[in-house]
Specification:
The chain is of the alpha/beta class and 389 residues long. It has helices at 36-55, 61-92, 118-143, 151-170, 178-191, 194-223, 228-255, 280-286, 307-316, 341-350, 371-388, and strands at 21-26, 29-33, 97-103, 106-111, 271-275, 291-295, 301-305, 326-328, 334-336, 355-359, 365-370. The chain contains eleven helices and eleven strands. The longest helix is centred in the N-terminal third of the chain and has 32 residues, at 61-92.
């Protein structure tokens, strides 16, 4: 699905730490597997072994376990492909991709910032389900090449059905699902207010959760104990949607407090741009009046001068290049002057960084945003609201 920006069976937020095992890169996108993903495979094995034994009589326990493990791993690969679909769409739109993380029953695509328009949000959100639908179609075609009633046929059939379920489920108009992102984009486009879209999609999440619980109750009433498994799955899906919708609602509530009369650029601290090879002693002189952003020869900002470290280095070697004591900018610590201030405020809450680089439309540094300054504005806004009550 899409968390704070894009993901297909879960949702995305700029990453603070890997929180898992780094599995390398695919197309330049870092992939991290959470320890909880192993539990996903264990659950699939527990559910898959009896199904294989029932559908394909005579299958040994060892083979059933092996095929269930393969199914679990391939489903993980399918979820990864879903998330990479989000990443591919984001890259086409010129957005920075932080990485992909797989975890229990899902995954999340992590982008450096929120979509800038309803069109971008809709395209990125829809890309994941589209990939899952294509995978489902490919496996469905492969079913014809296998012998019905065999373990291989069942494996391919389950992969086709699972990817179809992932595609359809994620298109439900509810946050934190991809369909909720598409709904938000539609409301955003219609009313020019992303917050209104978030509210509509959060409400959609609660409606879908209630509908899933109602479906589970109907299955139990109709099938009795035979309906326990599908009813349990429906309830688990309802909990996932409800908890995710509640989280999106809280996140929106926290970031919606930015006062409309305070432009984000007004709290940015002025910067001096110096080449990375500038002697550290000279950089410190410039830092007496403003923050110092060190830039490469092509004008790209490399990092922010670390004042304490720069002083220590200047004492030892005043001619040493200032680049030795700069704090590099990460993709998630770079924001644009035309970004929604509420989105920037939320970014500073979830990203582990004290400073954020504000960049103008031409790509040039326009100032440095400090977390402490943003928190002060938000606290002042809340104080004014309380005083009026």
């Amino acid at each position: 699905m899409v968390k704070s920006i894009a993901s297909g069976t879960a949702a995305s937020r700029p990453r603070e730490s890997p929180r898992g095992f780094a599995m390398g890169r695919i197309g330049g996108v870092p992939v991290v597997v959470s320890p909880s993903w192993v539990l996903s495979v264990a659950v699939i094995v527990a559910l898959g072994v009896p199904v294989i034994s029932q559908v394909v009589p005579g299958t040994g326990t060892g083979l059933a376990i092996a095929m269930s493990i393969i199914l679990g791993v391939l489903l993980g690969v399918s979820v990864l492909a879903h998330e990479l679909g989000h990443c591919w769409a984001a890259r086409v739109l010129g957005m920075q991709v932080v990485g992909v993380r797989l975890y229990l029953l899902g995954g999340v695509s992590e982008l450096s910032k929120a979509p800038r328009s309803p069109r971008e949000e809709a395209i990125i959100a829809a890309a994941g389900p589209a990939v899952s639908a294509v995978i489902a179609g490919a496996f469905w075609i492969a079913v014809a090449a296998t012998t019905p009633g065999t373990v291989g046929w069942l494996l391919v059939m389950l992969l086709a059905l699972s990817n179809l379920v992932v595609a359809v489920f994620n298109l439900l108009p509810a946050l934190p699902l991809d369909g909720g992102r598409v709904l938000r984009a539609g409301v955003w486009s219609a009313f020019g207010n992303r917050g209104a879209g978030t509210t509509a999609a959060v409400i959609g999440g609660y409606v879908i959760a209630v509908a899933l619980v109602g479906w589970a109750v109907l299955m139990l009433l109709d099938a009795g104990s035979a309906g326990l498994l599908p009813a349990g799955i429906a309830v688990a899906m309802a909990l996932f949607v409800a908890v995710g919708a509640a989280g999106e609602g809280r996140q929106h509530g926290r970031s919606a407090g930015w006062p409309a009369d305070v432009p984000i650029a007004s709290i940015a601290r002025p910067v001096a741009q110096l080449p990375t090879e500038t002697p550290v002693a000279l950089a410190l002189e410039a830092a007496a009046e403003r923050d110092v952003v060190l830039t490469e020869a092509d004008g790209v900002a490399r990092g922010l001068l670390d004042i304490p470290a720069a002083r220590a280095l200047a004492d030892r070697d005043p001619r040493a290049p200032a680049s030795l004591v700069s704090r590099p900018w990460r993709p998630e610590t770079i924001v644009l002057t035309d970004d929604d201030p509420s989105e920037i405020a939320e970014r500073t809450r979830v990203v582990d960084a004290a400073d954020f680089l504000l960049v103008d439309e031409s790509g040039q540094p326009a100032g440095v945003l400090r977390r402490e300054d943003i928190v002060a504005v938000l606290n002042s806004s809340r104080s004014r609201k309380w005083s009026r009550q």
